[in-house]
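Budget justification note: compute hours in this period were largely spent on complex prediction jobs such as the one shown. Inputs:
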Amino acid sequence: MAPRWQHLARLDEIPVGESKGFDLHGEGRDSLFVVRTGEASVVAYQNACPHVAGARMAWKKDRFMSSDGRHITCFGHGALFRPEDGFCVSGPCQGQYLATVEIAIREGELHLRLDELAN
Amino acid sequence: MRIMGPDEVVFGVDDVEASRTFLVDFGLEEQRQADGSLRFAALDGTAIRIHHREAQGLPAPLPTANSLRQTVWGVEDQAALDTIAEELSRDREVRALPGGGIGCQDDAGFEIAFQVTVRRQLDLPPERINSPGAAPGRGANQIGADETAPALPRTLSHVVYFTPDMERMQRFYIDRLGFVVTDHFTNTGPFLRPQANDDHHVLFLLQTPDYMQGLEHVAFHMQGPSELMLAGTRMINKGYESFWGPGKHKFGSNWFWYFNSPMGVHVEYDADMDKHDERWTAREAPSNAETSQLFLFQSTPKWAPMGGPPPGNRK
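Corresponding output:
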């Protein structure tokens, strides 16, 4: 079966080094977030800290990054993650990984691969 | 040991401006200090203090990345402060602090300080409810649902630590400072209250690995459950991230709603906590989802069953 893709946002809605959350299920909270790691590069993860099942990570809508932009942060307990692979370098879940979500950039638009997304 | 509760919790943070935004929206009053730090005060003067993590003169950081730098305990009077200074000077260095307080480390490596409390006596109305069979809390034409009500934290309620050395830590607070265990979560830790405060807990400890040492959360008492819901809903509407709640705990009976914060710890609204005295016998329970809450809700976008019957049923 061919993968299904869902349009998420324009790439330029997310400044380089910043993040944006998406509420795919209309729950009033974001189920995944995208970090723009470069001009033409993004990563995406489920908004779920590996430390506590179901714990969401931002401190405010779209705020998933440390102030210097170098780490994804879980603002529940201050865990720091490498943006490139979601590896936790410090905090309660150190040594664990965020769950990745596959997204693609096509003509400046972000698309989410639906069959990759766990609920 | 006439300790009343936490007067101030001091942080050295990554992002001062984000912390400021969060704490003001949480309902605390910003007070800029002479040393460049920011104080965010509840109605009785108890507060969170924010410094940048690289600011000079801060108490040393924990070995972890946790942003907690110091917990300042308020005591009843100078005599209470002198008693604590004498007790703790027996086996550790106790520093005199500017302003008359004293500072040292507890037995688990947390920086603590004591001062004659800054807590102002509050004289405020409780949440008023109408309950059949009881005298009305609100008289005729007194409206309960006020969307513009202030909903401000009244006082610093409690602090909760992640500690790698539970036994040493609880012995310090119980044996050296006279804290009393009100209830106990098996394999997690004790709820503790000091002798000059009858709240169910001002201190709770969670046993963790050493790489987690730090503050888990700091909580503020609200007027009551309605005000807690109002304050929490305002946070949600501003885009803040709920961690747990709203709900009602079993031990302590308090309503709760926890939020993530830019300080990398949770900040909690609580309301309607039990009070205890020396006649109370501590309960024990395993710590789990069932024992930690009477019930739990989750905020959702507003919804209502609007309109009449579905079109097919209209005659």
